Amino acid sequence: MDKTKGIVFGILAAFIYGFTPILGKLTFLEGSNTMSLSFYRNLLSLPFLFLFLKYKKVDFKIDKVQCKKLAVLASLGPTLTSLTLYGSYSYISVGMATTIHYIYPVLVAAASIIIFKEKISIEKLLALLLSTAGVALFFEGDFNIIGVILAFMSGVIYATHMLFIDKSGLNIMYPFKISFYLSLFSSIYLFLAGTVSSSLVFVMTPKGWIFTILVAFFVSFLANTFIPISIKYTGPTVTSIVGLFEPITSIVMGILFLSEPLTIKSVIACILILLGVFIVTISKENKANK
User: Fold this and answer.
1) Which sequence spans correspond to the domains of the chain?
2) Each residue of 75-106: pLDDT tens digit?
């Protein structure tokens, strides 16, 4: 049952990550930019997280070791992944950047096997191959070495982020407490980066602020919390595989809300990814844990 719970939370996180870029694009139309969105989505999630933790009567205290681990973790996923991935959009298309970024499940599996000497089941390997093949179909032909490097680095950093949650022992901490400190540290990092680069904006339309608050709630309050829960119950490899549900969500939302075309190539890609997620869900390993 725990494995099923982990997969469900992983899919929920992927779903949220998949539809929130639409909200992000809407903030850009109202005066925001990538640095500002990254900063505010962390900063504005803090009241939600604080009130929730107070309601649950969770102790905010952390020791020095936990503080260092959380500071490192915050520099990875919420900060450097966002900056490198968003930065790649200036050089290559979003489709190509996303395709390269989704190398991270392969990197997670490879690191688990080579570095941590973990065994990977045939089901996981098959799911990984199918899902990766599906993502590869989103590849587009434009090429710029800087953009490719930035997108690849975003995948490497996010893979490190997922493995760090699992191997550092932070996955036993209350997940909303993890998210609180990740948002806190990330807000500091991004404020400094935004100040140095003079890229933070402090004036947006009312709609822009509403969309930004929604992104903060869904991404930093919910999705960023669901990832540690998923890793706790399924491990980083399975979590990264079900995370490939994200591009499917992006495609569906793009069709529904942005009038983007549906191609045969996209349909085949989605089917392959769904097959991969389905195999992971029904694998014998998962059944053994119910």
Assistant:
1) 2-288
2) 998 899 988 887 887 787 666 777 788 888 88
